[in-house]
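User: Predict the structure for this protein chain, please.
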Amino acid sequence: MSAEELSEWGVYIVEEQNPPAYNEQTESIELQPPSFVNGAWVQSWLVVAVSAEEIERRTTYRAASVRNQRNEYLANTDYTQLNDFKGNDFFLEQVRQIRQKLRDVPLQPGFPWDVVWPMAESEA
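Assistant: Here is the predicted structure, written as structure tokens:
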């Protein structure tokens, strides 16, 4: 059915809108009730600044989340630290450097919102 045919029954299409860009550290986004504009229902969003307490809560949560991800990355290479692990010197040095960079993630400027994850040279 067309939009015109639907409107005869009191049914209107809601035009979905993509959410706007916002800063997840300092803002929240809220879906607003649709409004009737030019014969169509339009979905809209509202970006709202959050309180200092909410920013602190979000930053604490984000830091814990980033550290958990970092710990998973470290755990994935824990086997290379065992005494009986046999690997060539180049590989072991690459793993050592990446593990150190992972441990240093919380020291990066912008942590926890702007994190640069280390990669092996072969992935760069």
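The chain is about 35% helix and 20% strand.
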